[in-house]
Amino acid sequence: MKHKVIALIFVLILLTIFAAGCNVFTTGSSSQFPEELGEIPDGERAKVTWVYDGDTVEVELGGREYRVRYIGVDTPEIDQPYYNEASRANFDMVKNKNVILVRDVSDMDQYDRLLRYVYLTDGTMVNAELLRNGYGRTINIAPDLSHEAYFAELQAEAKREERGLWALEENKNLPDGCVTCTKNAYDCKDFATQRQAQACFDACMDLVGEDVHHLDGGGDGVVCESLR
C-alpha cells in the first residue's frame, strides 16, 4: 500500500509540472536563438539611440554607447541602389526602441562593433525581417552561423517574391554577397569563400563585361585564390 501511495504522489507531481507548461528537458540554447515571432530570447537589454544605415545601429547598454553590426545581413551602402529604403526600414523598426542583443560566437568585429542578432521586445528578429522583406542580402562569416540556413530560406523567399532590392532587374541574377556590378565595391576580404567571390566575378562579367571589382589580380579568370 505504501508503495502505491508513493507512486500516486509521483504521478501527481508529474501531472502538475506538465499542466504548468514546464519542460524539464529544455536547455538554454532554444531560447537564446529563437526564430519564431513571439519567442523572447535571452540576451542583453539595450536601447537604440542612433541608426547609421540598414544594418548598423548605436545602442545604450549598461550606461555606455556601443555600435552594433547585425549578424548575417548586409544592406546596401550609401551609394548603392536601395540604400535609402533599407536604412528607413531599419530606422522605423528600431529607433528609440528597447531591444535585446544576442551574441553568437564572436563579440566584436575588426571595427570594434558588437556583432549581434537584434530582437524587438515582442520577439521580432530585426536581422530576419530585413532579409524577409528584401532590404539586404545574407552574409555568412564564420563562426557566427547559427542562423545561416534560416536566413538563406528568408532570402530565397524574398527573391522568389521579388521583394525590395530583388525587384530591381540588376539584382535578380546576382549571387549572394554581391550587391552591385555598377562600381568597384569589393575586394577579396569582403567574401567568406573563394567560391562566393568567383560567383560575384562571373555574374558581373556576364552583366557588364568587365572585372568591375578588380578581383582577378592574375588575369586568369580565377579570383581571390588566397581564400582557398
Task: Name a few traits of the molecule.
five-stranded mixed barrel, 6 helices, OB fold (Dihydrolipoamide Acetyltransferase, E2P), 16% strand, single chain
Q: What level of helicity do the residues show?
A: 25-40%
Number of helices: 6
- Which stretches are poorly predicted, pLDDT < 50 over at least 5 residues? 13-31
CATH class descriptor of the largest domain: Mainly Beta
Q: How large is the radius of gyration?
A: 22 Å
Strands of the widest sheet, in order across it, are 1-2-3-6-5
| Global structural class | alpha+beta
Do you know the CATH topology of the largest domain? OB fold (Dihydrolipoamide Acetyltransferase, E2P)
Kindly describe this structure:
The chain is built from six helices and seven strands. It has a five-stranded mixed beta barrel with strand order 1-2-3-6-5. Helices cover 31% and strands 16% of the residues. It is an alpha+beta fold and 228 residues long. The chain is globular. The protein has helices at 2-19, 28-32, 83-94, 126-132, 148-161, 194-208, and strands at residues 44-51, 56-61, 64-70, 73-74, 98-102, 114-120, 137-138. The model is unreliable at 13-31 (pLDDT under 50). The chain folds into two domains: 29-167, OB fold (Dihydrolipoamide Acetyltransferase, E2P) (Beta Barrel); 173-228, no CATH class.
